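<tokenise_the_fold>
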Amino acid sequence: MARPLICIDARYVRRRPSGIGEVVRALVEHAPALAPDLDFLLLKHPDAADPLSVAPNVAERLVRAAANGPATMWWLSRATDLSGVDLFHATANILPARLAMRSVTTVHDVMWLKHPDWAAKPGVRGKIDRAFYAHGIRRALRRSTRIATVSAATREEIATLDADAAERTRVTLSGVDTAFRPPVAGSETPHGRRYVLTVGQAAPYKNHLAALEAFALAFGDRGDIDHLFVQRQGAGAAALQARAVALGIEERVHVLGAVSREALIALYGHALALCHPSFYEGFGNPLAEAMACGCPVVTSDVSAMPEVTGGAALLADPHAPARFATQLRRIADEPALAMDLRDKGLARAAALSWRAFAAANVAVYREALAA
């Protein structure tokens, strides 16, 4: 009898880092070893490292079409041969059309359906993106044999849109790579001064201007503390720098752009705190990464942030920078609190295992195959 063949769309794994890319990378690293009775076909982006997996039950296939592009949405079965596949795992929110086999879709969040303005770029491109992602996510909710989500918060959001989809949804809680760990005692700080750190893309939902406002309220009178942003350069960086000038703190605000993983780990490990006032997250990788590096976290009291931090962070209303400022000031002024957050964060991060995440996905595969 032929072994079931699981096709995982791994095209988000690329040299350019992304949150979904980290999730998919962990899945393909662990799932084949956890399911030696299954065979896996990985759809791979041309920019990915070679190979994605060395497991004996894995084959890889190059697909040049974008993971979230028109060819994937409507004509994936023409872009690559999916004959013989028993289960297709769409890993990035949208479910391709015309799939003949059972399917699992990982819906990281439903922001494109509930709060599209927080995700979309301005202008015509934003309108196209709204329509595209809303169509793909609605298809995923309607037609996937099973739906996987990276947090219980996302499952709850799905339930507000489609009760039947929520019944088919399973939580596969994200993890954090073991490379993220506290710095060695005595290691040199990467910045030379004390600093607050904010990490993430310059999308409206990340609320980075509020992070800057909170920093100014907390430390505007303390010239020994800087604010570092790890954020892709572009219009978002320009807006931050313009606001920093208006606040009179431009010399203490630094937008670093993309950095290497090693540099990011060092930045987390030596930061005074991570300031993460996001309006909405499916999971929020920077939260887990910061906790794993021993960095105290101040984050929002909404969406998945309380769930991910699990009592190991200070929470505040993302619409109220003054409340974030109060929490940041507490960490700066109360060493015992900062140490307590560090210890709680390390314990929470230790419970966020990529292996457990992959095992949960394998369980979803087996359930979908049996459906």
Observations:
- The longest strand covers residues 39-44.
